# Entry
Amino acid sequence: MSPVIRLLAQRISLGLLLLFFVSVLIFAGTIILPGDVAQSILGQSATPEALANLRREMGLNDPPVQRYFAWLGGVLQGDLGTSLTSGRDIASSMGSRLQNTLFLAFWAALISVPLAIFLGLLAVRYRDRWPDKLISGVTLASISVPEFLIAYVVMFFLGVKFRLLNPTAIGFRPDADIFAKLEMIALPVLVLTLVILAHMMRMTRAAILNVMQSAYIETAELKGLTMFKIIWRHAFPNSIAPVVNVVMLNLAYLVVGVVVIEVVFVYPGMGQYLVDHVSKRDVPVVQACGLVFAAVYIGLNLVADIVSILTNPRLRHPK
Amino acid sequence: MIKTIPMAAAVGLFFTILYFLMAILAPWIAPYGVAEVVGDVWEPSSADYWLGTDNIGRDLLTRMIYGGRTTIFIATVATFISFTTGSILGFLAAVMGGWVDQVLSRFVDLIMSIPPLIFALVVLSVMPVTVPVLVLVMGFLDSTRVFRLSRAVAADINVMDFVEAAKLRGEGRGWVIFREILPNALSPLVAEMGLRFIFMVLFISTLSFLGLGIQPPAADWGGIVKENADGINYGIGAALYPAIAIATLAISVNLVADWILNRTTSLKGGRG
# Structure
């Protein structure tokens, strides 16, 4: 077996192992902590018999380990259980919401990733001059404010004061045509872009600066290579891995940002689903959503690892 | 030290101190009571109500001052918990090495593989949402980052000659950690403390905004946004004041943290 494939197999199995432990953690976290699910469904006035019946029905009397594996088995077969509050199947109500969330995240990523890399390069090119300082100042300001506040500021000015865009995404219909959908999510996409652009840009700038300050770039300059050739032959191949890492890290960050932004814009996605059911104390839904978010997060980090292995000859041919 | 303080850091320090003073002195400087309904709904700013009134007619300036008190208090306590747990465990892992280090580090890796907000939401779905619970959850989740930093810094210091000398002298583990490593690791940790504090302010504001943080009628910056968010659609910007407050506080603390980090050229820990 070639070393690359072995390394990749190692990483992927490590990721799966991590996901397994995360599922244990999410399940254990909701079991160990005090609180009685049956009580919260039936309310304080429930008779002891009704409580006992419900507990038996839901399998709450089984030992935790058995319950965990029953839950995990269900999850692996695509059965996420039923919601305590609405009694509906979680997997089917999550399906369309997950699609909506991915739709939102996809457009935010499509705009912010190229823009961040471009601005990062611009900041490096004009390092310590006004474009760099301007970009740094604006990004510092925008990472110092929580996402939901940026969202309200943008909503207030663009959505309400100047009426340029729809202030909320409440009228979003998944079956509408693509332009109607895009019009609905224009503001959320703008806000998400602003939020991750700042992080991504700062990190891209740092990653490229790091490469540009290496000894081999200086050597290439002293050899008399043109700027274009230096970037193409020396800087670019070496900065793929760090830049991809930055991008993946920020897409993972996007997963979390999406939760808050969906609540602000009343967008029917996973984030809103999760937050709604946390306040209703609907544990099965929260567990399922938590697991999905964690899986996406781990998956993106895994992709970053794999790309950096594939692009780095030092990792591809370990001694 | 005061004479050589750069302009940016001085401004940052000034605003940071101002905010903390406002938080401590809130009951004396706030013009009205925190839950006192004094006027109409969403009155514009006037001589009586400098920032106007909120969604049920409470004075917004009072709410902002008390809100700052809550937010800053919670962020401070959570940062304290995060730092004591994170740095003590991090130093222990670095000094003891072996299986203690392995177990702690892998556990931290595991916690960090779940986004903190998602983890907090999962925990808060079964726990009662009270201030002690919030502070503990935030503090422990964040201590993972402090753990990584302090472990890295301590591992660098741990191999230096003076630590070696102390060990050969027969000093115990407590002496090595508190008398040899801690003083040398203090600067990067203090700079990091500023960043963690800001993160805590953002974290508690986000939780309150989602309705899972500070419960009304107590005020905090995230909650003020939630309460007044409906006004946005009518063109009333009451929900935007916390944005200004959080941004100025965050930038000020950042400027101070940068200055502290720049003063310590050696032994820089990682940031982030």
